[in-house]
Design goal:
Blueprint lengths: L2 H14 L1 H11 L5 E4 L5 H6 L8 E9 L3 E2 L15 E2 L5 H12 L3 E11 L3 E10 L2
Antiparallel strand pairs: 1-2, 2-6, 3-4, 5-6
């Protein structure tokens, strides 16, 4: 395996460090909701998913809000007792993030994604893409 064995071990140690987590969170919050980034935050994880540092491969960071799906209540007319405002979606937040990125980058193919950071309100994922054949 070589060098990536040591890179992965180093990343594991640094990702457990609370100061490093806070540093990643403050960096992540600077970007807009969907942003292309120059290189992945977790290089060893990206390599396991098939990312390569060459043209045709990109990394995109996306923010997804936490919580359940909320549907608006009817304002006028009668209000049924079983209206159902909150729903648990069948898709995970990670799957939702991947789908949103693929809607923006239509000519790309999904390699995979992983969680980068989260706070009380949002989760940030990095989605790895390559040019479609």
């Amino acid at each position: 395996m070589g060098a990536f064995k040591y890179i992965r071990n180093n990343e594991r140690k640094s990702n457990r460090d609370p100061a490093r987590k806070k540093e990643i969170l403050t960096e992540v919050k600077k970007y807009p909701r969907i942003a292309r980034i120059p290189k992945p935050t977790k290089l060893a994880r990206a390599r396991l998913l098939g990312y390569k540092a060459k043209s045709g491969y990109i990394a995109v960071r996306i923010r997804v809000s936490k919580g359940s799906f909320r549907r608006p209540r009817p304002v006028h007319a009668r209000r049924p007792s079983k209206t159902g405002i909150y729903f648990n979606l069948s898709a995970s937040k990670q799957k939702i993030a991947e789908d949103r990125v693929l809607n923006v980058y239509k000519n790309m193919q999904l390699l995979g994604s992983y969680l980068v950071a989260e706070d009380g309100k949002d989760k940030w994922y990095e989605v790895l893409l390559r040019e479609a054949d």
